[in-house]
Amino acid sequence: MQSPLLDRFRCLNPACPDVDQLGLGNIRHRKWYETRSGRRRLLRCATCGQEFSELKGTALWNVKLPHEQVGNIVEHVTRGNSFKETAELTHTHRTTVSRLTRVTGEHAARVHDHLAQDLQVTSLEADERHGFVGRKDQPCWEATVIDPRCKFIVQNALGARTTDLAVRLLFGARARLHDPYGIVLFTDGWLPYESLFPTVFGRPYQPERQGSRGRLPRLRYRIPRTSGHVRIIKTYQGKRVTDIRIERAAGSQRRVDQELALLGYTTPNTSAVERHNGTVRRMNPHQVRRSLAFARLPHVRQTVSDLVNAVYNFCRVHRSLRVKLDEPVGRRQYAKRTPAMAIGITDSVWSVLRLLRTAVLPTPCRS
Ligand SMILES: [Zn+2]
After folding, report:
1. What are 250-300's pLDDT values in tens digits?
2. What is the pLDDT of residue 364?
3. 273 and 333 assigned to the same domain
4. Rounded to the nearest whole angstrom, what is the distance from the C-alpha of residue 307 to the centroid of ligand 1?
């Protein structure tokens, strides 16, 4: 009889026929073994015979610190504390915080890649936040695509504010969607969004060749009736917005109106992503305004950003996502939800340790 406890684990051997399958009963408990951070199970896959630690594929594998302390470090960093402040608050060294942030941030990105697939999304909002790495003259913008209905961060991209940033952002977001041809995209007036929209969210087709010789004409893109792109173009005088112009760049007005009604908006806007900008500037130490927490290396910036996004999506409840309970529990009238719960990836609020303990297949590291 298989212990229900062992059903939490799965084989992560890519060559195994039962790879990444839960509840098949192929995982056996081999023995306990001692580590510096406590007693661990050694598990064995009965299908392929491979033995592995119960922490294999999690962020806590080979971590020497007590796991609660790792959780505390992540909590502190994702509440906008610098590495130095976090080290002082958790009685660790600054380099320990930096190393664990990298390990947990890379893990967080893998969890997002693994779980944020096939998303049922009908509209997206995109925006970029300014930041820098090392020195102020080395800008590192952080571009985000968010689902305004569930407040779920679909995709994030870091780098200079060039077309390449928009390419990585929009193609990355598209790859995670169940139906990329049913999207209404709300953006600011940044031109790459407009020029990329047909390539990313349009259907490619091959135009007829003129005559019978020569190479075929270049692929063209047809924008489906089910999608649209609205630009919200703001004119600034100094820091003050003097004028807002709303422009439908692609798709039909009917589809845009239908999406606005679904979202409960009267006019097109990018309020969800702009509100999220404020949240991130509280959560990510490198985005806090007038702080002394500088990212000196690009990979630190990337991993902190990945960590903050995963904690936001899976661990932080969002007030606007709460749902009224059928029957109040004591004085509690609402059930709290995280963006990941609203979009249907999970049905509970995750603790940071739950995020770190989620096992995912190791993927080749990003360039
Ligand atoms: Zn196996």
Report:
1. 999 999 999 999 999 999 999 999 999 999 999 999 999 988 889 999 999
2. 52
3. no
4. 29
Distance 344 CA to ligand 1 centre (A): 28
Residues 290-328: tens digit of each pLDDT: 888 899 999 999 999 999 999 999 999 999 999 999 999
Q: Are 119 and 343 in contact (CB under 8 A)?
A: yes
Written as six digits, the tokens of 329 are 């529990």
CA 80 to chain centre: 18
Tell me which residue range forms the domain holding 189.
Answer: 117-202+222-283
Q: How far is the CA of 50 from the centre of ligand 1 (A)?
A: 6
Q: How far is the CA of 359 from the centre of ligand 1 (A)?
A: 14
Tell me the C-alpha distance between 270 and 125, whole Å. Answer: 6
One DSSP character per residue, 124-136 reads EEEEEE--BSSST
In a domain, 263, yes or no: yes
Cβ(250)–Cβ(197) below 8 Å: yes
The per-residue pLDDT for 52 is 92
Count the domains in the chain: 3
Predicted confidence (pLDDT) at residue 2 exceeds the cutoff of 60: no
Q: 6 alpha carbon to ligand 1 midpoint, in Å? A: 14
- CA of 45 from ligand 1 middle (Å) equals 5
Q: How far is CA 260 from CA 22, 90, 230, 231, 257, in A?
A: 40, 46, 11, 14, 5
Cα 190 to middle of ligand 1, angstroms: 48
Structural domain includes residue 216 = no
DSSP string for 270-303: -HHHHHHHHHHHHH-TTTSTT-S----SHHHHHH
Whether the CB-CB separation of 189 and 232 falls below 8 Å is answered with: yes
Pair 358, 9: CB distance under 8 Å: no
Ligand 1 mean position, distance from CA 292 (Å): 47
User: Could you tell me the distance, in angstroms and rounded to a whole number, from the CA of residue 10 to the centre of ligand 1?
Assistant: 8
How many angstroms is it from 362 CA to the middle of ligand 1? 15
107 C-alpha vs ligand 1 centroid, how far in Å?
21
CA–centroid distance, 2 to ligand 1, in Å, is: 16
